[in-house]
Structures are given as structure tokens and as C-alpha cells.
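== Folding task for one protein ==

=== Format: two labelled lines per protein ===

==== Paired sequence and C-alpha cells ====
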Amino acid sequence: MKTAFITGIAGQDGSYLAEHLLEQGYRVTGIIRRNSTVEHQKNRIADLDIEVEYGDLTDQSSLERALRIYKPDEIYNLAAQSHVRISSDIPQFTVQTNAVGVVNILEAYKNVVPEAKFYQASSSEMFGSSVDADGYQRETTPMRPVSPYGCSKVFAYNIVHHYRNAYKLHANNGILFNHESPRRGSNFVTNKVVKGAVEIKLGLANKLELGNMDSYRDWGHSYDYVRAMHLILQQDRPNDYVVATGITRSVRDMCDYVFSKLELDYKDWVVQNPKYLRPEELPYLRGDNTKITTELGWNPTYTFEALMDEMIEHWMQVYQSQ
């Protein structure tokens, strides 16, 4: 039985990954951050047969302690301050967690279980304003991030390369484009739109406030993307892979689809609030998944429409059961 160790195990991706690894016969372990409201610590993973310790990326001693306890074969570093716009409000915390925190987990990995395989959750936000001539971003696209979040992720991406080369570690980057699910936090735009539209449909709200409606993103499902993470760590040599659908849509397109499914016109309900705009906007992301599809055989199983439909159904059930 292989042992997997997941930071961020209580998050959207961590919970889907834990489920997937359990199905594969793994012993699944991880760390959670201490929270004064205990339900917030484990609500996505409460029913899973996993083992967790308290820990934090900013506390290297807690990471080394957990790795000594579990001695994992695979390490998945998914923990982060993950909200891009909020990273401009709390830039120091974002960098301490997403950049210095990755140094901490890499040091713990190197010191305790250097024979393990390591996955770093890298992000399409690293590309920022850089787009190749054909309209895609891929592993070779230059990185020009436009937020503290994106900048911190570029540092993490590069420090993983350094540890791979300097210490001969099986350290990998998965450059994941936007991926969503019903488990996504409702302050992220996809779940915010779906939840808000359902509330309006049920008469629980009379407007939805959003930021930039003309930002384009490449949206997939977290379930598909955690399968890619696992697949990356099954390879003999460490590498970096873009994980994306290859299709981009705007926030406006998403609103149109979701509200139309609920027999509403988004133009009647959605208003723009400047407080949700980023200091420096990122207008366009579209990933080229050629490398991972050809080399590893990965392909997404969810369409954008199926993803949105699942999220709509989730929130309808939540409110109708109350």
C-alpha cells in the first residue's frame, strides 16, 4: 500500500484527490490548519478514511513532524492562499504561504523522505499577460504574472526546478488552469455566479455583484484535474505539465449560460462592483494540454456545460432542502 501525503487536503482539490487515491488503494494522510471553528477544518473530508495532523506551510517543524510520522511515497503540495484578487489585499501572507511555504515543504521533503515523489500545485496565473501567438499558454510560454498570487506561484515553480536539479528529487509541477466544482469556495467567481443565480431564481436575492465580466478563463472540473496530479507522479522522471481543457470563455459567457439554464436573463440581475476588480487585470487564459494528453494520455471528462450543470444542481439541492 502506497502512502500519499496532501497539504491542503481539506480544500476542493485536496478532498477530490483524497477520494481518488483511496479508490486506488492508497493510505491517505495530510495536514490541516487549526481553525477556531472545527467544522471548517474538515467539512469536505469528514467522511473519508484518512489520517491528518495539524500543520501549516509556514511552520517547517510541523511539516517535518508529519512527514516523519507518515513516511509518504508521494507528496502533493496543494495548500496555498488561493484567492487571486485577495492576494492584493494580503500580499505578504500570500507570499509567505505560497512561496516561502514551498521552500519549507521542499526542505522537509529533502530532509525526511527524499526518495518520495513530489507534486507542486502550480497555476495558470503564472503566465499573467503572456500569451503565445496562437492564443494558447503552454509549458514554454514566458511567465509575466500580474498579481501577488501569480508572482508567488512563479517563485514556487522555479524553486521546485532548483530542488529537482540540485538534490535529484522527483519534484514535479502541474500548471493547472482554472478548475471548479460544487466544493469550490463561494467567493470564487464560478460558485459565486451559480450560487447567486440560484438564490435569485428562488427569490432569495435580487442582484449579483461581480467584477470584470470580460475576463476569459479556461475552466475545467477539479475531479479531472486531480487525476492529472496523480498521473504526473506515476512517471519515472519528474516533469512539468499544463493541465487545461483548451477552451476559453468569459465570465459574461458563464453568466449567460447559468442564468439561461434557470430561465433568467443575467442582464436583469448582474451588476458590476468596482471592489471586485483586480488592481491589474488578467484578461485571458487558455491552456494547451498537448503535452499531458500525448505523453500521459490524460483527457478531461467534464465539459464546461456539465460542470456548470452539476454546480447548479448542487445549489438547488442545498436551498430546496433547507
